[in-house]
Amino acid sequence: MAAMIEIRGLEKHFGPLRAVDGVSFDVHRGEVLGFLGPNGAGKSTTMKMVTGFLSPSAGTVHVCGHDVASDPVAAKSVLGYLPEGAPAYPDMTAEAFLRFIADIRGFSGSERARRIADAVSKARLEGVLHQPIETLSKGYKRRVGLAQAILHDPPVLIMDEPTDGLDPNQKHEVRALIRDMSKEKAILLSTHILEEVEALCTRAIIINKGRIVFDGTPEAFEAKAPADVTKNRMDWVFRSVTTGDAETNGAAQNSAPATVGGDA
Amino acid sequence: MKHTITIMKREFAGYFATPVAYVFIVIFLLLSGFFTFDLGGLYENRQADMQAFFRWHPWLYLFLVPALSMRLWAEERRSGTIELLMTLPVTLPQAILGKFLATWAFTGIALLGTIPTWITVNYLGDPDNGTIIAGYLGSFFMAGGFLAIGSATSGLTKNQVIAFVLSVVLCLSFLLTGLPPVMEWLDTVLPKLAVDTIASFSFLSHFDDMSRGLIEGRDLVFFGSMIAFFLFLNALVLDARKAH
User: Fold this and answer.
1) Res A260 pLDDT > 80
2) CB of B10 within 8 Å of any CB in chain A?
3) Is the CA virtual torsion A171, A172, A174, A178 positive or negative?
4) Beta bridge partners of A61
5) What pLDDT is stored for residue A263 in this prediction?
6) Residue pair A34/A207 in contact by the 8 Å Cβ criterion
7) CA B123 to CA B141: how far, in whole Å?
8) Nearest to A76 among B14, B80, B89 (CB)
C-alpha cells in the first residue's frame, strides 16, 4: 500500500538556521503518528510544509500521491489541517464558519448540510453553533477547528497540538474523536504530552534541531529507558534523545517502514 | 471563480458582522455631504453639475479607503487565519482577488448611498447625466486603485496601524504627483521625461478627466492596470512573508 504522506529529504532554512534539516518519513493509512520534540525543534515548520503553507528549501512532500509543491490544490483538498491554536474567523458564528469551509471544499445543497451536521456532531458543537467564535471558550474553539479539519472526511489529517490548553475532560474527548477516525485515515499530530503518545499513537517520531532522532512504536520508545528508571520512563528517553546527554543520543530506531533522518 | 466568490462573500459579510460597515458608510456620506454642500458650494455655484461633489473624492478616499483595506491581510496574519486560508484548496490569486472584490463592492455601495445628491442636482436643474455617470465610474475605479494599494500594504504587516499609515503615504504620493505646485518643484530637480512619467501616474489627473465626463479608455486602463499591478505585488509580498 502506498504511503498517504510521503516526505523525502525535507529542509527549511531561515537564513543561517536550518529549522528542518533532512527529514524523511512515510505515514500510512491506519497510522496515528505522534510528532514530538522540544519547542523550536521544527515540528510546526515540518507540518506547515506538509500542508503547503510553507514551501520547503529542499525535499519533497507527497500527500495521497499529489506533490504539494507542483499541485498544491489537489494535495490540500485531500488533507484536513488543524493549525496550532486552531485559528478561525472570530466575527463569524461557528455555523457560518463551517458553511464557508464547506463552500470552499466544494459542497453544496443537501450534501453541504449533511457534511456540516456530521462534523458538528463529531466535534460536539451543537450547543454553540450560533455564537460568534470569539465568544467561545478555548475548548470549543479547538473543536470548531477540528470540525473544520474533518468536514470533508479527508484521508489525511494533520493536527498541530490538538489538545494543547484543553482541560482533562476536553483532552479525553478530542483523543476519543481522533481514535475513532484513526482506522481509515493517516493521522499526523504533534504534541508535548508523552502520555498522549502512549494513549493515542501507533508510532512516534522525535525530532530535535530539525533532525529525526527517534522513529518507532511508543513501546520501543519507552523500552529505551534503562530498567532502573521506573517512573516517567518516556520523559527520560525524551530528555536523553533531545538533550544529547545520554548514550541514546542519535541512535534512531527503524521499526516502522520509513527512512530515518540524516541525508536521505 | 467559485472560490473567489466564496471568499468574497465571506469577506463582505465580515464588514457587516461588526460596526465597521455602518461607521464607514455614515462617515463617508457625512463627509461627502459636507464637502459637496459646504466647502464645494453646490448651491452657490448655481451650476447643475456634480463637480463640487467629485472634486473631493480623491481626498476623501485618501483616508477612508486605507481604513477599509488595512485589515484585509494584516488581520489574517495577526490572528493566524492566513494559515487556515492558505491550506484550504484555494490559490493565492483567488484569495487576493476575492478579498479585494469584497472591499471594492463595499465602496461601491457607499458610493451608491450618495445618489440623493444626484437626485437633488436633477431636481434643481438640468445636468448632463452622462457626465455624472462618468464621474461615478471614475470615482469607483479610483477607489479600486486605492484599495489595491491598501491591500498590498496590508499584506506587509500584522499591524493594522502600520498598514493604514503606509497605505495613506503611498496613496498620497499618487495624488500629489498631480498637483501643480508639486510638479513645478519636480520640474526644477528632474529631467522633463522623468517628470512627465511621474505625472502620468497621477490618480488626480486621470480622475479629473473622468469626473469631467471624459470616459477615455486610457483612464480606465490606467486604473485597471494599477489595480492589477498592486494586487500582483500583494501576491509577491504574501508569498514571501505570510509565515512571519
Assistant:
1) no
2) yes
3) positive
4) A7
5) 38
6) no
7) 27
8) B89
Q: Is residue A98 domain-resident?
A: no
Tally of CB atoms within 10 A around A13: 14
* A-chain residue closest to B95, CA distance: A104
Note whether residue A180 is domain-resident: no
Model confidence over B199-242: pLDDT tens digits? 888 888 888 878 777 777 788 899 999 999 999 999 999 988 77
What's the average model confidence in pLDDT over A42-65? Answer: 94
pLDDT, one tens digit per residue, over B68-113 is 999 999 999 999 999 999 999 999 999 999 999 999 999 999 999 9
Decide if A254 is inside a domain.
yes
Taking Cα atoms as reference points, which of A10, A87, A8 lies closest to residue A54? A10
Interface probe, candidates A46, A50, A79, A89, chain B, greatest B C-beta count within 10 A: A89
B83 touches A at CB < 8 Å: yes
CA distance B102 to chain A (A): 15
Is A132 close to B13, i.e. CB distance below 8 A? no
Q: Kindly determine whether residue B87 and residue A76, on different chains, have CB atoms separated by under 8 Å.
A: yes
pLDDT for residue A149: 96
Edge-first strand order for the sheet with A186-190 is A79-82, A156-160, A186-190, A32-36, A203-208, A211-216
What total of structural domains would you count in chain A?
A: 1
A interface test, pick of B18, B79, B83, B85 with most A CB neighbours within 10 Å = B83
Query: Could you tell me the residue ranges of all domains in chain B?
Result: 2-241
Q: Domain range for residue A212?
A: 1-31+39-70+195-264
- Whether residue A116 is contained in a domain is answered as no
Q: CATH code at A246? A: 3.40.50.300
Chain-chain contact of B6 with A52 (C-beta, under 8 angstroms): no
| Residue of B88, B92, B242 for testing the chain A interface, max A β-carbons within 10 Å | B88
Q: Is the pLDDT of residue A262 over 50?
A: no
